[in-house]
Amino acid sequence: MQEKLAALSEHVSAALGDAVITSETRGGELCCRVRPEALTRVLKFLRDDPNCGFTVLCDLCGADYPDRPMRFEVVYNLLSMRLNQRIRLKLETDEEQPVPSAVGLFSSAGWWEREAWDLFGIYFADNPDLRRILTDYGFEGHPLRKDFPLTGYVELRYDEDQKAVVYDPVRLQQEFRSFDFLSPWEGMDKILPGDEKATSEDEGSGERQK
Asked: Band of the pLDDT at 44, cuts 50, 70, 90?
């Protein structure tokens, strides 16, 4: 298997030149980091070349690394059923730089790109239907970004007066409280049954240790 992957890596690098930045083998798969502007050329070669035959786009997803200058990674997992091999492509982008759409080469990329746009805010140029797919149309932000708040920005409710679903800014329903480990809310000012025994035993053991 390692020999086949090494041969595939050499073949891809030789054919695509500087479009492939790096390549390595991980978990029995070839992983290549490619330049964003060369993505469609790389995908077309991997799909059509007889020594590759990666005709199935298994999935496409995003990953967020906020500390990097190019905070997003877009990952493409391809399968060659004829050769029984897989290859993974990665590229870097940010909130401003669009990624070429793969819909023209793999029709299944349409929904994957919509998901990456919805959850991460990664923009795919020339996608014919780039809109939210998992969150609602009125949703604000992109929930899989590492800096997205756990509470979100807005909350949905049905307004009886307006007879419609409305969005309001998130309001915490209760203030943060100091827990005293006796009651989860206000606490108790009296000793619970049995606590006096534990206290006397603890004091007695302390005296015995002295």
From this structure: very high
pLDDT at 192: 60
The architecture that CATH gives domain 2-133 is 2-Layer Sandwich (3.30)
pLDDT for 165 equals: 84
pTM of the model: 0.76
Of the listed ranges 11-15, 62-66, 191-195, the least confidently predicted one is: 191-195
Q: Which long-range contacts (CB under 8 A, 24 or more apart) does 11-18 make?
A: 11/51, 11/52, 12/45, 12/46, 12/52, 12/87, 15/45, 15/49, 16/41, 16/42, 16/45
Q: Are strands 124-125 and 154-159 parallel, antiparallel or unpaired?
A: unpaired
Distance CA 104, CA 150 (A): 36
Q: Are 145 and 134 in contact (CB under 8 A)?
A: no
Give the start-to-end residue ranges of the domains of the chain.
Answer: 2-133
